[in-house]
Every structure is written in structure tokens, then in C-alpha cells.
Amino acid sequence: MPSSPSPRGRRPDPAVDAKIRSAVMDLLLQRGLEVTMDEVAAHAGVGRASVFRRYATKRDMLLDALAQMFDIQIAIPDTGSLTGDLRQVVVDTLAAWQDDRVAALSRQILGETGRDPAVADLVRTSMRDRMARTWAVYDRAIERGELRPDSDLWLLTDLFAGLVAYRGLLSLDLPDPDEIVRSLLYGFAPAGR
Amino acid sequence: MPSSPSPRGRRPDPAVDAKIRSAVMDLLLQRGLEVTMDEVAAHAGVGRASVFRRYATKRDMLLDALAQMFDIQIAIPDTGSLTGDLRQVVVDTLAAWQDDRVAALSRQILGETGRDPAVADLVRTSMRDRMARTWAVYDRAIERGELRPDSDLWLLTDLFAGLVAYRGLLSLDLPDPDEIVRSLLYGFAPAGR
DNA sequence: AAGTATCTGATACTGAAAGTATCATATATG
DNA sequence: CATATATGATACTTTCAGTATCAGATACTT
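YS: structure for the whole thing
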């Protein structure tokens, strides 16, 4: 089958695409998910109809923007020890939540997962991808004997992600990175078991 | 100052109060937070105005309903060991999330937390109260030497609450209760540290 | 008993915002 | 040149929260 049925009339203007995309990103960071389509069009300097020609619904527009946002690479630490690597991940994550705008938007996105399964899908997939990319850290740790080989790594990562999400959503302070790492690796029972 | 300035006209009908309250609870479980005020009035068999006379905004109405929901007592286990007590808490919590309607509503409430600070306040306060009520479990455990005396108990409880909230929001399966308890108490490092 | 304030259900109105429709104009294919 | 689609502008439709008004009911005050 022919891949391009040869488009007939005037082609969509890529400049308009770009203007809309960047307006959405801008407004998302400025004012969170509660943005009106008129605002987007106005901020992009573009006709309202052109926005709706690209996205059938506001939800589609936001999903596209969120997918972009999650599509940023994350650094994989290699400090030589699991404690060091984990600490790095924790510190980086906590640092991101320090930015008020990032924190506010993260809260809203997490919140949206509770109402829209498609957002939940997006977040779930993105988080899993991201975490799977740090698997190297755990592989090395198991080789070095710093991690039980039978560890449920998803549980490990989700305990941390969950803590951040939960406290973030409720605007509770996050504890010291070392405290977190220690709890995850050694638990709350007294030393020596 | 006089406590009651003596109300003049017709008094609000307690029966109407009750009908509205129960209609809200009903609809919340049936259809989640996305309920219209007309539906509430209709389902309660009550005039629309009577709803707005009691709650200035829909938000107020929902906050009142949520406060009621959180105001249910939770059993405090005392099995004789921290492992047993914790396991009980975990099992009970996971059981609640098994009910699809409870899960869906919990997701939505957690989600609302990301958009409305008042909801976040309510949830935070309720969760803290509830968890503080289980403090006895940890006091006993510390006495028995099953828990480090310097433990950050909020971190312990929030690691668990966070895991449930995070996986619940994203509709991910929760692990085996024993697995959770073991991770919290002993961590992911190999035995013997 | 009279007077007045407030509740009650019913109904209509206002305003915001998503989504649809239409139009004149611009730009691309054939 | 003919046709098809994009563009911005503008107006319309629908849904829903919140407001306003009304006639009738109820309870307090004098």
C-alpha cells in the first residue's frame, strides 16, 4: 500500500505546530493543567481552530505535552557502591521537587492519573522505562553482593517513588537522602536482625 | 457573648440534611467525584437550592463528605510481634483496595489532592491521625527490641502508604504482604549486613 | 393572632469553557 | 485554472456551577 496518498490542499504549517507546542509547555509550567484552549491559542498567537485541528480534545493536547515532558533522559550514576548510586538517584529526585513549579506540576500530573486512565498509562509507562534504565545500578550491586539477588527490584524502586509521590502530593517534607537509602537497604529492624 | 442569637424563621430541616448527605455518599461510591449538583439534588429528592443553602460550593460539599469518609475507625492489631502486627495492617489495607469502587474513589481522592490544597490538607490530617493511632504497635515493638528506637516512624509509615498510593494511582498490582513487611523491616541488603 | 424571617422545591438566569460550524482568505496539488 | 485543505476570526451549542426569584410552609417574636 502507498505510504503517502499525496496530500491535496494547503499543508499544515510546521511553524504553527511549534508555536502551539511551545505555548502549551510554557503555560503548563506557568499555571498547571488548568489552562483554557483560548489561552493556548492566544499565547501561541494562533487561531483557536488551528489548535483544535491538531488536537481533537484538550485531553489529547495535554497528553501530547506530558509525553514530551517525560521524554527527558536521566543520568545513571556509577559511584562504585550501591549506597552511593542510590544516594545519587535520591538526591537528584529530591532536587527536582525543590523547584516549586516542577513540584506543583508534578502534583497535578499525579493527580490527573487518578481521574484519567490514559494519563495513568502514560505516567506508568514513563516511570517504568525510566526506572528500567537504572537497572544497571542494581545489576552491579548484586554482583558486588550489596543487594539480595532475589530482590524484587520493582518493589525497591516503587517504595522510593511512592514515598516521593505520596509526600509530594500531600506537600509533606521529604527526609534526608541518607535516611531514605539506609531504610531501603537495611530496614527498620535493629542491626544484626 | 450569647451563644445562640435565637434563629428567627423556619429552621433547616434535618431530614433534608440527611437526605443530601446520604445521596452524596451514594453517588460518590457509584460514580466518583464527577457528580453534578443536579444529580445530588435529584438523587436526594430535594430542591437544588437546598443543596446550595448547605454548601456554598460543590467543593465544600465534597470536602464535607470526604471528611466523613475518613472518619472511620481502624483496628489496631496486637499479635505479639511487630511482624505480625505490621502484616495485619498491610493485609487490611490491601484488602480495602481490592474493592473496585473503593479503589476507584481512592484514586480520585488522591488525585484531587494534586489540584486542591484543601483536599490535600484533609487527606494529610486524616492519614496522620490514623497512623498516629497505630503508634502503640511501634511502642511495643521498640520495647521488645524489634524496632530501632531511633526509627523515623513517619518514614516507615509513609514508605508503606506511599507504595500503596503510588501503585494504586497507577493501577499496578501490589506485592505480597509478607514481601512488604520483610522489605520494610530488613531492607534489600543481604542478611547480616 | 399578627408579623416577619427563613426554609422548601421549582424554575429561570448568568458565566465560563470545551467543542462545533462557518467564512473569507491563503497555499498547495494536479 | 480547479480543487482541496490550512489559517484566523467569529459565532454558536452544550454542560454545569453558581445566583436569583417566587410562592408556599414553618417557626420565632411581640
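YS: worth flagging: The first helix of chain A runs from residue 14 to 31.
IM: good catch. Also Residues 7-13, 16, 41, 46-50, 53 of chain A lie near DNA strand D (CB under 10 Å from a C1').
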